[in-house]
Amino acid sequence: MSVQREDFEHTGPKQLTDVDWANDHHLRAVAASLVQGAYNLEFDRQDSQDPQGRWWHFFHFELKHKLIDDKDSSIYGVVYEIKCTYPNHLPESTPKFVIAFRGTIISTKSRDMKLNMKVFAGKLHKDKPRFKHALEAVKAVVQEAWPANIWLVGHSLGASIAMLVGKSMAQEGKNLKTFLFNPPFLRYSLSKNIKNPTLKDGILSTKNVIKAGISFVGGDHLWQELHHQFNKLSPWIPYLFVNQDDPLCSGYIDHFRNRKIKDEIRSIRSAIKAAFVKDPQLPIYLLPKAYLTISKISSSPLQAHGLKQWWYQMSIGPGFANSSTKVLIDDAIPVGEP
């Protein structure tokens, strides 16, 4: 599901002339706008147009670096730096840098669809031109500012990249404020949205065979490793924004509502043993904590997965605040619990 080019003068949150950096709705709108800026830069590159910077200049940011995939030459992200006349007067919560990752743009020359398949297969973390390059860029920014003054923001495929980067930095003890718009939850969505009952049952039963039949391989060191990875992420609390009508991300709602973390990690351990994986990694969707914002504004699947909804409601009235819920998810496992 691809996002379109947006004109700030027509659809942007122009009423935010004075951002309150302590207001969740303002932060959400700014973060989403900066991601849209990353989308527009790639559209401009494809159309050989000069970039229009209103999506970031309006909020007093400057474009510091473009993040370019060296395989398809696409602009997949942007490093922004805030530029204010009186920077010392800004609240402590104001970001000095924001790294924004766009989502899928459908193009014959783009690798985006291949990367979506890597998200689905759990292999995005192995992609050098996109994920590893993004991680290196974020680490370079961390050398210039405190982690508390750095934001990661992303939409769809870009949310997957931002989540993996955020997890990697959290494992190093650097917790970056992270805004994830419509992050894909494909493990759940695949079985939820397949209509053929035979195929659906086959997918679920195959997963259960892996869980139940191979769990005897090896010892308990995998449990300890996955348990350690999970709890090490606990201080990092990303902000997830999902629409209940979006088939690609709405799985997070039931996942957080119904999950049993210890059972899930044990199941993951069994699958890793079955595949003889030497470097066990937690699935991208598994988080100890998160702020989950659920949009209840009814819309088509295409609109529900769109980025514009996360700032546009502020342009037309207070409807979003009355049609969404925000909850803190906290499922950290006590240290040492088997």
TrEMBL record:
Pfam families: Lipase_3. This is Fungal lipase-type domain-containing protein. Gene3D superfamilies: alpha/beta hydrolase. Residues 116-177 form the Fungal lipase-type domain. SUPFAM superfamilies: alpha/beta-Hydrolases. It comes from the Eukaryota. Keywords: Hydrolase. One of its GO terms (molecular function) is hydrolase activity. One of its GO terms (biological process) is lipid metabolic process.
